[in-house]
Amino acid sequence: MAKWSKFGERFTRPTGARQLMDDLGDALSGDHPVCMLGGGNPAHIPELEELFSNELRRVLDSESDYRRMLANYPSPAGEERFRTSLAELFAREYGWQVTAKNIALTSGSQAGFFQLFNLLAGPQADGSFKRILLPVTPEYIGYQDVGIRAGMLTALKPTIEEFDDRTFKYGLDVDNLTVGDDIGALCVSRPTNPTGNVLSDAEIDSLIAVASAQGVPLIIDNAYGMPFPNIVFTEVKPVWNDNVIMCMSMSKLGLPGLRTGVVVASEEIIDALASMNSVLSLAVPSVGAVLLHELVESGRILEISKNIIQPYYQQRVNAALEWVHESLSGTDYRVHRPEGALFLWLWFPEIPISSNELYHRLKARDVLVLSGHHFFPGLDEEWQHRDECIRVTYSQDSESVRKGIAIIAEEVKRAFSEA
Amino acid sequence: MAKWSKFGERFTRPTGARQLMDDLGDALSGDHPVCMLGGGNPAHIPELEELFSNELRRVLDSESDYRRMLANYPSPAGEERFRTSLAELFAREYGWQVTAKNIALTSGSQAGFFQLFNLLAGPQADGSFKRILLPVTPEYIGYQDVGIRAGMLTALKPTIEEFDDRTFKYGLDVDNLTVGDDIGALCVSRPTNPTGNVLSDAEIDSLIAVASAQGVPLIIDNAYGMPFPNIVFTEVKPVWNDNVIMCMSMSKLGLPGLRTGVVVASEEIIDALASMNSVLSLAVPSVGAVLLHELVESGRILEISKNIIQPYYQQRVNAALEWVHESLSGTDYRVHRPEGALFLWLWFPEIPISSNELYHRLKARDVLVLSGHHFFPGLDEEWQHRDECIRVTYSQDSESVRKGIAIIAEEVKRAFSEA
To answer: Which residues does chain B have within 8 Å of residue A148's beta carbon, measured at their own beta carbons?
Structure first.
């Protein structure tokens, strides 16, 4: 039995992320049919698949594009031409003062968080220790384990507003929001994974203000947001300034196999990420950058996001929400207002079994979901609420989603009947 | 001015790898013409580019292959079908007892070394500290900075055998090879980057024996080796056993934009890498795995490597070597026997300027090489030899290589004349 280093022990522990990716890999490898309501695999939208295929064929028809995509190492911050075009799109659409020097690509969005969290928090040269503050939990499972040291996250409980239609919405608890000297950065996902929440413009303004006052950056995880893939069902405005680190992804466009994340930040942060890219992985993939270049340069990526992706998910989430209300009728349940992302977040107040037990019972019936308890990274205090929720992905085929939701309802009702 | 964490300070230092990738990115982005004899970009071989383009077109014609490549997250260890086919190829060709469970993909070979070095060395749970032993320097620049803590590498000086034809060859100094309890693993590149050395079968057997005796793995960095890309000009046999960690790359096939590394190791190591993949990057790219699948499954990858890649580089290295002898005639120089990889390693005994000064003088003349001093990671003792060598990549266009070598000769002669 090999003995790992401390780093090795930390990064080979059983984690929610590994469980999630194992479940996802098993389900998608197609060994046996399951209702895959677990991972965050984007939907297969035929119109987009055709579009991306055509873009890729066009790349193959050009020797210089082929080489840019496959045959040459890019610069440490990632493929230069794409970064330039993306900066121009941000400047054009939103008036942001950015150039290619404000953009770095990473080997997927998760790799970007590994780099950013460990750059901005953890042990400091002066012997102190800084943490990343997650001001609104529930928050993304992937943040949990990326710190090279334990204890790098701290988090706040949200406010909860309940509505008459069995929906609810988490909010920023402004009254308890304090940012001490032990905080290296704040981080929120918007739209939020796992809840589908979209923090309001006012909430983001509050976060920007407290971060600036403390002189630390605000990281906004925009993997599902604007301008692409724009899986957002409310009206909010994208924001960026020199103190905001905006993280984006190509995955939710339907391209998770590329592993390309995008970070928009101050030149200083970008230069640091470029250095880290060199040492950690020599270079980051260019496939996505070259594949999407023309769509970004022309601005077509905005139309695609607005006219294809957003309506597709809007229709899917509406259907899934209806099935939830139908199936769970008669049970005590709540569902978070689905304002964006690929998920429904279900809350079963006072359910007699833990959400993790519910996960296992559902898995035994070939329905994969994620137990809500994974989504409170950095929140140390006891809170029964976190064992009462599950995340349900609605992006896979409708039949699976409908069937899965029906089975979830059966198991929840059975659990309540055991009380 | 932002303050980084200790991790941040360590991974944003100026490094040889960052300098190399900056140089490479600048040169390839084509802002102005330079003789790019610096980085390790593989050659553009038209026959291969056509082949890979056709493979990619075939993927796009299949909905299931398209989705496997671009639209689905793979398992934590990487795309399953490719790993199975590659294991079958190893079993068929070399008789190795491996399955898909012995293979993990990483986000490029460098990312694999980050994971492996930090898994096997660094601070241990019992308070001790382990290091990676590089038994034959010069050794790959990329190993230098991947440790999350300083001091994670230690190295041995090589033996040097000189030949009548101005060539020389480094060897394993078996007499000084001891592996103490502070060593977590041994690592060698074979073919060696930067020297083009290929350790003999006997040398590898010695390393396997001492590693096994100490109960630590031997990492063999096979980025240029067999079965692909097979940029090897001598007769050696590839070896693997449960105590060997063999690392491979798709980059030197001509596909560095993919960022896909391959690790063949015990199931225990592979499972650890899969966990690390999940946490560090959620998943690794599938593009290369699906692109190369048919070539690996059919075994055509072996013919391509043997009949296209190997002869191509053999012809290129012969030409470059001839230009070196022509241009440097009359100067005191040595060149390492080029037995594999993309590089000529030139040694100028007693040259009055450092190799780093020579690098800067050449850069000022638009010839990019790498100073040899970067290639002694972990070697702490003084040794003038390490400031007397440069690495020259011969894989770019012939005209650049010929012209670059001529300018190198001019600058070396000028340096000697300053003494």
So the answer is: 7, 148
Q: Write phi, then psi, for A272 (nearest 5 degrees).
A: -65, -45
Residue A31 touches partner B, C-beta closer than 8 Å: no
Domain A58-299 matching CATH 3.40.640.10: the answer reads: yes
Written as six digits, the tokens of A198 are: 């979209």
Using the predicted structure, report yes or no on whether residue B25 has a pLDDT greater than 80: no
Query: Min CA distance, B415 vs chain A (Å)?
Result: 32
- Where is A356: in which H helix or E strand? helix A355-364
Residue intervals of chain B classified under CATH 3.40.640.10 are 71-298
Q: Do A17 and B278 touch (CB under 8 A)?
A: yes
CATH code assigned to A6-48+303-417 = 3.90.1150.10
CA gap B182, B128 in Å, rounded: 8
Q: What dotted CATH number matches B71-298?
A: 3.40.640.10
| pLDDT over 60 at A363, yes or no | yes
d(C-alpha A149, C-alpha A372), whole Å: 24
Digit-coded pLDDT (tens) for B175-200: 999 999 999 999 999 999 999 999 99
Global ipTM: 0.95
| Residue A116, amino acid | L
E-assigned strand segments in A49-182: 103-106, 122-123, 129-134, 153-155, 159-162, 167-171
Is the Cα dihedral B331, B337, B340, B345 positive or negative?
Answer: negative
- Determine the residue among B259, B271, B309 to mutate to test chain A binding: the one whose Cβ has the most chain A Cβ atoms within 10 Å: B259
CB nearest to A119's CB, from B5, B125, B275: B5
